Amino acid sequence: MLEEVELPYRAIPVDIGKGEQHAAEYLRINPNAKIPAMVDDGVRVFESGAILIHLAEKTGRFLPEAGQARADVLGWLFFQVGSVGPMFGQLSHFRGAKREDPYPLERYTKEVERLAGVMDTRLGESEYLGGDYSIADMATIGWARALDHYMKFDMSRWPNLSRWIGAVTARPAFRRASALKP
After folding, report:
1. What is the pTM of this model?
2. Fewer CB within a 10 Å sphere, N or C end of the chain?
3. Nearest to 134, CA basis, from 69, 83, 66
4. Beta strands per DSSP E along 19-107
5. Angle at which helices 172-179 and 159-169 pack, to 10 degrees?
6. 3-state helix, strand, coil in the chain (%, to 5)
């Protein structure tokens, strides 16, 4: 989002492997000890959805002001926040866990496949999740890309989702952000 709107910023890496998110200084920004978080002109904002809404409202970009268009973008943003992120994250966790019980892996695989199908259906109706390119797409692209890159799903099952991933990752701002090194 910061690359899309071309606001100046300073990225400060937080090494979660070393537990830096539990430092008192960071907890003052995000009491939940998670990334991302930011301070913008003295305003503390944490959680990805809140950050995206904050920046969209600040810049007047990527979030319609009212009506069905705004409702669509917010609905798909919260679809990511409440479903895609948590379910894809749980699948990643259980794929890495050495467990004999197959239930968690089966449960989260089926749910991730269902969510990918929901996105594929939507993207068969609309070029982007919220209609026009928006914060909903920005919030969702990282998890959607993981389907192929890290989770090794057969993406031919979701042609509309695959098209959308290609469109979003081809954006210059996405490429600039992806090239950033911590």
Report:
1. 0.95
2. C
3. 69
4. 37-40, 43-46
5. 70
6. 65, 5, 30
